[in-house]
Design a protein that fits this description.
Layout: H1 2-77, H2 82-91, H3 100-107, E1 110-115, E2 120-124, E3 127-139, H4 142-154, E4 168-177, E5 182-192
Antiparallel strand pairs: 1-3, 2-3, 3-5, 4-5
Helix pairs in contact: 3-4
Length: about 190
Amino acid sequence: MRININKKIWLIIGIVIFVAALVFLVRIYTQQVQEQEQLRTNLATQQALLRTLTVTENDTQNRLNQAESLLDASRAKFPQSVESIEYGEDFFKTAYGQNLYAMAGGCGVNLTGLTIPPPTDKAVGAVTYSVSSVEVTVSGAIDDIYKFIDAIGTGIDYKLPWSFQRPWSVDVTSVNIGVGGSTTIKLDIYAYKG
């Protein structure tokens, strides 16, 4: 009988070991399935984040391109040289520190718009001039607008009893009198470059 008990014990031990191994393998398999599910979830989250970041990067790049384009357009509107700033500043200042707005006010008109593109060079014989085509918009009575055009061209400040010589020359190229008293005056300003 001893042999039979030993066989039964060995059989029970074998079954216990087999069940324990089976439980151990099922547990490892379950853990791996859970880890794989967690990895799939993390991967899906990371892929969604990557798509969001890609869209954000493209949007940011588009806004950067638009901002750079706007900056380039804005730079093109401003005078490109210090010389243009110097004579432009002189153009907008008359005797005794009065500016163009004051000159307009002295003539009885309101200055409503001003466009100054970068100057260009123009050679006349051996002399080179810096030329800016300026557009001034004013509103007021017709007589006052004519007085203002004369003041710009001749340098006469109607608040003062005398005129003065400016270091630049103005050529009024066109006057467009609109409906409602608004007038656009186009000027070419010539400054000697030296």
